[in-house]
Amino acid sequence: MTVAAEKNPPVKLPNEPTITPQIVAEHGLAPDEYERLLKIMGRTPTMVELGIFSAMWSEHCSYKSSKVWLKKLPTKAPWVIQGPGENAGVIDIGDGQAAIFKMESHNHPSYIEPYQGAATGVGGILRDVFTMGARPVANLNALRFGDPAHPKTRHLVSGVVAGIAGYGNCMGIPTVGGETNFHPAYNGNILVNAMTVGIAPTDKIFYSAAAGLGNPMVYVGSKTGRDGIHGATMSSTEFNEDSESKRPTVQVGDPFVEKLLLEACLELMATDAIVAIQDMGAAGLTSSSFEMAAKGGLGLEMALDKVPMRETGMNPYELMLSESQERMLIVLKPGREEMARKIFEKWELDFAVVGHLTDTERMVLTWHGDVVANIPIPPLVTEAPMYERPWKLTELPAELDAAKVPAPKDWKASLLKLMGSPDLASKSWLWKQYDHLIMGNTAIRPQDGDAALVRVAQRTKALSHKGLAMTSDCTPRYVQAHPETGGRQAVAEAWRNITAVGARPLAVTDNMNFGNPQKPEIMGQFAGAIMGMAEACRVLDFPVVSGNVSLYNETEGRPILPTPTIGAVGVIDDIATSVGSRLTKAGLSLVLLGETKGWLGQSIYLRELHGREEGAPPPVDLKVERRNGDFVRGEIVARRVAACHDLSDGGLLVALAEMCVAGGTGATIKLPAGSAAPHAYLYGEDQGRYLVATADGGALVEAAKKAGVPAVQLGYSGGVEIAVEGLLALSLAELRAAHEAWLPNYMNSAA
Amino acid sequence: MKAAVLVFPGSNREGDVAQAIELVTGRRPTMVWHGDGDFEKVDLIVVPGGFSYGDYLRCGAMAAQSPVMAEVKKRAAKGVPVLGICNGFQIVTEAGLLPGTLMRNSHLKFVCSDVHLKVETSQSLFTNRYQAGQVIRVPVAHAEGNYFADADTMKRLEDRGQVAFRYCSPEGLVDGSGNPNGSSSNIAGVFNETKTVLGLMPHPENAVEPMFGGTDGKALFEGMVEALS
User: Fold this and answer.
1) Are A224 and A120 in contact (CB under 8 A)?
2) Cβ separation of B13 and A260 shorter than 8 Å?
3) For the whole model, what pTM was predicted?
4) Which of B16, B112, B212 sits opposite A432 (nearest CB)?
5) Which ipTM value was assigned to this complex?
6) Is the CB of B139 less than 8 angstroms away from the CB of A437?
7) In angstroms, how far apart are the furthest CA atoms of chain A?
8) What is the pLDDT of residues B68-84, one digit of tens each?
9) What is the distance between the alpha carbons of residues A520 and A293, in angstroms, rounded to a whole number?
10) What is the 3-class SS of A129-172, one letter each residue?
11) Per CATH, the architecture of B3-228 is what?
């Protein structure tokens, strides 16, 4: 590669240090990466330029360790309008409407400063979605915390939940779904994965590729401050004991400004003034400007002194690397500046023309007339480091013989213990802090079904009842035991969640949370999970349309459980045909669909009652998954099902208990003749299963048999107890108390 | 019934209440921007929920000083009905249209859930479609809904029948179990002396359709239509 001689070499700023190997290392660039930089630049970079390379080539922005693997995921389907590579994925949901969605992590910042970390995680993902022209209609989140007994956990739960609530509630977007788990592997690295789903007309979707020589580049939103500098670099390294000192790298959010920004952007988007738009997320002005110019194959000249600044004395380096929140970069059509300015001024937001597009394919940054950076744009992207890191797959552990797992001595105590365990206990304490009802479209509320269900008002009819079903899911202990199975299972369970409310699963967003990719076993977990996910997405016609990778989730060498969180979206034509999982009526027949062998390896029962995390995770047969799911969905939409719950953590008995507690109706069941040992049958976590309540169990079993789906009538709903003949009779009141008490008691107890 | 819904920077339930009004009247209300001190003549002014001005300083404090609220105060004095919901309740108390104040919830957290309310009177343009003593189920969603007034004011409110709704148990018992925020005397909503201004923390606008939270809030809008059309 040759580099043309620069017309405008940059000047050295006052007090600018000389670049030393130490400064390079502090910027997270490996020596060979710095060599690559020198080759591209043809000279020693300025500090601003070094900062830009550091941010753009950070793991967080460049996906340098994960890219080769992410390519293996299926991303196409007839309904996919935009796959990975934009701010968010876009799918067609009919009637001229598109669903735009993505999930993104804010793990490292949330551990350092839980309130702001989580809040700005929500703010960032909201911006990714409304940048594309969508009005956000729902938020979800997947949270993983450490051992409840760990001294920091309570503080982190409290801060993260308050941060999510603080931001989402003020924005007026309902938080309708998600999951919250605990495991000691997250003691030093919690996971905060936030997902936003928005709706836009299919003919009004906005992209980030800049176009139009000479077009103005406009900065809107909040002023730029010194917060979040080097956030992307911080998120691309492991934690150690002095990570607390990185608090200044965490951004500070202002949901009120974001709400104004949302309304102002949507107002501007209703005009035809916008050529391209991009939010400033990780690596702020740097990544947004480079991405826009690179995608458009253009150059950009930007006067950094025009950027609205929050404090005096800021320099170009800080301006380019700040991760101040609530900011956007827009390419306008020529001559539309004043009209656009008026909209942003109405919403009391900053608006500044900061530059214009050129044909040089170079990024030229000036500071009061002096050039301070001059970087060729294409090689920064095309020559970015990409690693095929060594990887070692995790071997499939031996299957655990259920006969070697003791049955509970006391059945009642076992169910109470499971339903009151941190992972399975009611999460009402946190749901109540999230406004999950605003907008008036929430049809299935948190904990009332396997997926959240939200109405999407159609443009053609004032109040139609088309709905979007949404969920997020992952079972990290399965992924840890065998990443391929775990990856397959995470996708399958998300698909099952959507199916269980009667919706058609359409597409997923993935949030890959892993440890240090430079370790072959971690890279092997990543590779394995991707292989499993790719296969599941292919078989289930469930393409990946957006995603995010968070690596280096390790503290002092201890990695998290590999956690590929799957966010998924599906559609149902008429919400009136959907079902939740609450058992609200007596006299319904309870039918178990799917095959039950009694798989106890890696089960919650094994972990919570016997303190063992052992064996192979339950296998997922994707063809069976699809057959069973398609059957269940058909029965639901035909209104032959009153309630439906997919079987996951804790197996059959926990699913039944959840249905009973949520709906306030008891149930009595009997184990079918010839079934596995009771504890394996009731607590096993075999996949591809649903527990369904229906008025006519006989007819459902008949229909299932015709469809080749194993089905068995277990008993009936009714009464104030949950009972298994010959084994257990437990009052709902007692069960509910155990289920609901754990989280509030934990949060209210002294540290 | 011709209604106006105010919009402040940071309002976020204006769409919900506009949709509820449209559902009941078949007519979209006028949306009035906070800087607009001069808007068309209407039969009802709604101050909606949200986080006006980010709830900075104190909930509703800045919105109460906006040009549009100066006009609302004038019209309220002439008897134009005003309905303040959630943040709107905070705004109208800050503007002096209703007595008392909304403090931080006693448990210090945001709370979003269905609550039960006891309707205290059917003798108002807002509650005429309810029975006195009726128990209804509607959601709340707020962090500052803890109603407080000094003892004299509380006595006056009670004596004059200015309490509109009280939090209660599903069975209608007005006790601590049904109180989501620590409000004095379980107060969820109050009238002004002439019962032309109503402020309440719960969201009847989110309980107007069977599949989306039930319909117990609908009668409030139907009652206003009946009284104001």
Assistant:
1) no
2) no
3) 0.96
4) B112
5) 0.97
6) yes
7) 87
8) 999 999 999 999 999 99
9) 35
10) HHCCCCEEEEEEEEEEECCCCCCCHHHHHHHHHHHHHHHHHHHC
11) 3-Layer(aba) Sandwich (3.40)
